[in-house]
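> example.struct
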């Protein structure tokens, strides 16, 4: 599992809830050491980029089996009393496979993350697929995006290249704020990434979209609020995509306001997140 410093983001605590006192109160998400909501527990009120490890980790605090142990990679069951869905992820920074825990559920975590949990989002972390397409539109393209994979198939780092026809609408996968908008023409010299947009959502995730057209240009502006499914722009030509087939490039990092200037293998050490499981489930929700 990826490791970063433990951090709090997102949902504010319920006024009546006292986090980490070992009592599962209304407004809290409670993690248990054993299956069946047994053993020691801890109660949390915020999203967590990383539960932490070593002396700085979040620990189970109530009496019972597992008391004092780190919750990261040790949580078997949960009780969601937050009033909203909670997403528990395999990797830090809300990446990798996950379990969506409905409000009110007292359940064992699913096989994706049971005793393999690294981070959580309190709230709807799901995505809208970022292109205005059907499943057939994607599956029938050559080359085609690896829709059936749970890991990113981008060649150099955690990112996705979703092949689609020029002119396909690029849609925001999240509710958020437009942070940047850059209009770039295509180039027959094969050195243009096309127009780009970044959108930051309420969980601190910065989404980057590249290889969009410049004519028509992206239809949003910096500072604009966008909602899931709102059009950002249009897929460009191969000349907006370094002379590869027309496609949308999308990647994500957490806790930053701008997309680092890197490409290909040079991006590998910048903490880009495996968002493929979220994208895949958004794709499977398409007609």
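> example.seq
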């Amino acid at each position: 599992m990826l490791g970063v410093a433990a951090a709090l983001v997102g949902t504010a605590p319920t006024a009546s809830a006292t986090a980490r006192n070992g009592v599962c109160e209304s407004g809290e998400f409670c993690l248990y050491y054993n299956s069946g909501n047994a053993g020691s527990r801890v109660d949390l009120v915020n999203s967590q980029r990383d539960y932490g490890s070593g002396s700085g980790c979040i620990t189970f605090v109530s009496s019972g089996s597992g008391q004092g142990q780190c919750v990261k990679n040790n949580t078997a069951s949960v009780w969601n009393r937050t009033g909203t869905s909670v997403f528990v992820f395999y990797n830090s920074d809300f990446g990798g496979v996950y379990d969506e825990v409905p409000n009110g559920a007292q359940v064992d975590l699913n096989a994706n993350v049971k005793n393999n949990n690294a981070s959580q989002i309190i709230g709807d972390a799901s995505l809208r697929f970022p292109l205005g397409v059907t499943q057939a539109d994607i599956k029938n393209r050559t080359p085609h995006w690896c829709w059936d994979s749970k890991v990113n198939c981008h060649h150099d780092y955690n990112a996705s290249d979703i092949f689609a026809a020029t002119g396909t609408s690029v849609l925001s996968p999240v509710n958020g704020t437009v942070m940047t908008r850059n209009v770039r023409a295509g180039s027959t010299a094969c050195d243009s990434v096309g127009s780009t947009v970044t959108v930051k959502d309420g969980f601190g995730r910065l989404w980057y979209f590249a290889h969009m057209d410049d004519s028509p240009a992206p239809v949003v502006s910096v500072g604009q609020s966008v909602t899931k499914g709102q059009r950002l722009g249009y897929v460009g030509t191969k000349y907006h995509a370094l002379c590869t087939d027309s496609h949308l490039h999308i990647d994500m990092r957490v806790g930053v306001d701008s997309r680092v200037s890197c490409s290909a293998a040079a991006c590998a050490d910048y903490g880009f997140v495996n968002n493929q499981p979220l994208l895949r489930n958004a794709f499977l929700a398409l007609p």
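> remarks
The chain has two helices and 17 strands.
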